[in-house]
What does this fold into?
Amino acid sequence: MSQPRVVAVHASTSHSFSKFTEEAITLLEGLGVQGDTHAGVTVQHRSRVARDASQPNLRQVHLLHAELFDELVAGGFAVFPGDLGENITTRGLDVLALPTGTRLRIGADAIVEITGLRNPCSQIDKFQLGLTAAVLDRDAQGNLIRKAGVMGIVLQGGEVRTGDAIEVMLPALPHVALIPV
It folds into this structure.
């Protein structure tokens, strides 16, 4: 398998569903993506702010695998990188299989620690009808599989650009499977 890579980076200053493709984004330690509406030490997603605005922000960076877009396009959806609100679109990395606490060195300096799965929200169907069902699946035992990417926190800041390599640093054993955050 080839080296995992960044295929696109995105940010938005507003609480819009989709994010805009950028040439580069800057990750800020302990905050998230510079200039992105979801950056902050405490929760920034509206539903979470409404419940408890003092909770730590475990969703500073949203990473999504480009392979999901391939699958969705093949299924008849017109959805492309940035459309689902991710900050970093990856290729060659099974983000959903990473254990909690995995660290990703992205580009020369940035390090993101994976905190959990993105739980698809009702906005996905508002974007395109039927898309929520398309980003959910079931395994052989009937367990729900959430395919809408993973969330993380910025441990070390740095610039992230299209084409940057991604190095995976797994946590110590035993590995803990990702759950929604």
Observations:
- The longest helix spans residues 66-74.
- The helical segments are 46-52, 66-74, 123-127, 131-134.
- The chain is about 15% helix and 35% strand.
